[in-house]
Amino acid sequence: MIKNSFKYINVFFLILIFSCQPIDKVENVVFDYNQLSKININAKQKIVNELYQSKFIDPYIDHSLSKSPKDHLKEWFESNFEINGNQNLLEINIIEASVKKTEIPNTDKKKYKEKTIFFYEIILLVEFVLYDDSNFLLANVLVESKRTTTSGKFISLFEYERIIDNMILETLFDFTNESKKLIQEHMINYVF
């Protein structure tokens, strides 16, 4: 009887010890546009043309996201893309802002256990065009940024959203830095 009591006490303490282990808390991805590049252009007007329309077929998933890459681009244009001047028109054409999700065979058995995994790809493609008041083309820049990642096939919804948001944020960092660099190169006379 005493032997059984020690057995139950040992089991109780083991459960207690394991239940006191720290839980890894995964943070949400935070989109802080203040951390992204800021651009100042000599123009009196800025127009954003949404040429890209989400595709509602596989493998495209940007239409199903709570906030699409196109929405993030528009927020960046609004908060970090300033125009200062009394002449010129800046036209921003969003050509592509897609996210694709494809099921592919797993070739890296060390990273994932499943036979198939998900492959994600994001593409941002934007054209910046500067016109003078006579509608004469002064300068234009085409900026593209791509990223890919993978995930296991059986992940939680929270993990899925975190993977997508993280990929969008990293692509935005790449895109904004590349935009600033190319705009300063090709629109040097119109950048503050």
Write up this protein.
This protein has helices at 2-19, 69-80, 157-186, and strands at 39-41, 45-50, 81-83, 89-105, 116-131, 137-151. It has 192 residues and is an alpha/beta fold. The strands form 2 sheets. The chain has a 4-stranded mixed sheet with strand order 2-4-5-6, with helices on one face. Strands 1-3 form a two-stranded parallel sheet. The longest helix has 30 residues, at 157-186.
Key words describing this protein structure:
192 residues; alpha/beta; four-stranded mixed beta sheet; two-stranded parallel ribbon
Write the H/E string, N to C: HEEHEEEEH
Unreliable residue stretches: 21-25
Largest sheet, order of strands side by side? 2-4-5-6
Question: Residue-averaged pLDDT, rounded?
Answer: 88
Derived from helix and strand composition plus strand pairing, the structural class reads alpha/beta
- Total helices: the number is 3
Q: Beta-sheet strand percentage? A: 25-35%
Q: What is the CA-atom radius of gyration, in angstroms? A: 24 Å
Number of strands: 6
Overall morphology: elongated
